[in-house]
Specification:
single chain; about 425 residues; Rossmann fold; seven-stranded parallel β-sheet
Length: about 425
Amino acid sequence: MNILLYIDPGTGSMLFAILIGIIGTLNYLLKNGLVKLRFILSSGKKVETNTDKLPFVIFSDDKRYWNIFEPICRELDKRGVDVVYMTASPDDPAIQNAYEHIKGEFIGKGNKAFARMNFLNAGIVFSTTPGLDVYQWKRSKDVQYYIHIQHGANDITGYHMFGVDYYDAIMLSGEYQVQEVRELEKLRGLPEKDLVKVGIPYMDEMANRLQMTPKKDTEGRTVLLAPSWGKSSIFQKYGGRIIEVLLKTGYHIIVRPHPQSFVSEKETMEKIMQEYPASDQLEWNQDNDNFEVLKRTDILVSDFSGIIFDFSLVYDKPVIYADTDFDTSPYDAWWLDMPYWTLTALPRVGQKLTMDNLDRLKEMIDECIQNPKYAQGRREVREETWEHKGEGAKRAVDYLLNKYKELTETEEVK
């Protein structure tokens, strides 16, 4: 019986899209009928048909992206701009935010949230969620403009295929990202999107916060293991052995898995956490805010997680990145002949960990911390991927307001 009721994700997405199409058609007919009725009741006078339109909407599919948007929300609030922040997390900090002009609203989880977004009436929708108009999240006919901002300082082609194809504009932080998007547009015959390099607002925030926080002297070295999730991640390749080797270094070890690991790789995580429970030397960290854990760490061990660049570029500390044979086939990067920028940046900020050198991990940690060439590499990478350092939120809001003014003027002409 359970087999008969099973619907694979692809079919489920298709059925959801069909349902959305039917509802959209009914919604359009209803709106059209109401407009005609209002026209008749007003004795043929022109009536305003779009009074419930929201000027700015921010959409976040998870609470962990509040740090991406908060610096921008603060700047919007400072300028007196009203924004509705729609989130798919009931405990998103955005719901109880402290800003007068930013209204947080929980719109349901999963398909319920996407259904709300699919019939939204707004001028601009601003989001860090990829996959617009690919699966469940469809472009609303009543939204004028969709703008994307990345939630990491790396390749724009690191999203699953077609991740940003159907946005109208993308906020970027480096010229190599612009080249990646333009190449994808050519290959897929897409119209050119508006690409604007604003910098990285959340990293500006981290840098300011770090500068304002007093340094604390700690005894011994602290190593942070922060794996991503999926078949190319550290735990999928090395399993618990990576923790075992780290413990042998004698250093203090912090393990901070990607939040999605506890959802998509639940059994793996339960097994590893049971084999390597917390102790005086080992701690498991799941703080929503990673600022403090990054601040007290001397070196990071990770794979292809975006935390690598947060750590190396903001905190100016070295990394060891795992050789996980990153498979580009599910991602936009697979389409391009150009090098994957992240893979060119990693050797400059740290050393590669492999099965062959895993037992030399302590020596690698010591060398990465002490060798000045990695400090020089971090400076190079920072220049390539973090343009307009310190100006991200201001530039992002300037673009949002200028674009909205342009859209409004165009609408008035029509």
